[in-house]
Write a sequence for this structure.
């Protein structure tokens, strides 16, 4: 019996998130069904974290204990032959017996994509958020700079445990224009609050559309910011389909 670290990619459009739920189609549920076909007898695999309904991934990490007498490459092929077409295993490695994909992670990286266009685009909108009116790119990039460092992100999400802290350290937050009307936000942090990235994107777009200011973003992160001020920020989240978990980092 060995513990395997599995890296997953999936199109989240037709999943009710990554975490297993009763009577719901989830990434964890599909992976566990495939592992059972290979003799896995565990109660539950471990995952690096959960993604919401509709969120995609290219670097989700799971682990499972399995009796497997073949190579990592053969395990990848075997699992992918059993998994549905919207999820695949991209990497497999044996790891130490106490490896935990969530608690051993040192940081996580997400990418959010959007495009500005007045008319619907059914193809693009599977993976990008259509934003209109258009945005000011300079304001978008300036707003991202406010997130760098260690801040109280309580205005941007909720803790992943009932008594968890809302302090997070962001080491990367930047927007790049990838096409004439398309933008990509890349963010990396030690950990994220529940729905934190989607809230970050929503408020940055509000800045770029002139609805709030860059200073409002900065004030929302300040420890002295009042509950009244935070509740005065526009409510909402960027749609899930624009978000992708691109990587989970571990110490070498």
């Amino acid at each position: 019996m060995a513990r395997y670290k599995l890296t997953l990619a999936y199109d989240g459009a037709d999943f009710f998130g990554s975490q297993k739920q009763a009577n719901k189609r989830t990434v964890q549920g599909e992976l566990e069904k495939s592992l059972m076909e290979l003799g896995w007898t565990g109660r539950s695999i471990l995952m690096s974290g959960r993604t919401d309904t509709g969120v995609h991934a290219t670097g989700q990490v799971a682990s499972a204990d399995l009796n497997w007498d073949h190579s990592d490459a053969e395990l990848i092929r075997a699992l992918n032959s059993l998994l549905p077409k919207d999820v695949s295993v991209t990497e497999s490695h044996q790891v130490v017996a106490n490896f935990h994909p969530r608690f051993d992670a040192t940081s996580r990286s997400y990418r959010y994509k959007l495009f500005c266009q007045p008319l619907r685009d059914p193809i693009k909108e599977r993976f990008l958020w259509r934003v209109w009116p258009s945005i000011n790119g300079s304001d978008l990039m300036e707003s991202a700079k406010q997130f760098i460092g260690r801040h109280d992100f309580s205005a941007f999400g909720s803790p992943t445990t009932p008594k968890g802290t809302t302090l997070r350290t962001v080491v990367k937050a930047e927007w790049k224009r990838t096409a004439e009307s398309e933008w990509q936000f890349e963010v990396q942090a030690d950990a994220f609050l529940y729905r934190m990235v989607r809230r970050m994107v929503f408020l940055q777009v509000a800045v770029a559309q002139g609805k709030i200011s860059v200073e409002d973003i900065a004030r929302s992160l300040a420890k002295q910011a009042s509950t009244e001020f935070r509740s005065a920020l526009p409510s909402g989240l960027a749609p899930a389909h624009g978000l992708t978990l691109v990587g989970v980092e571990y110490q070498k």
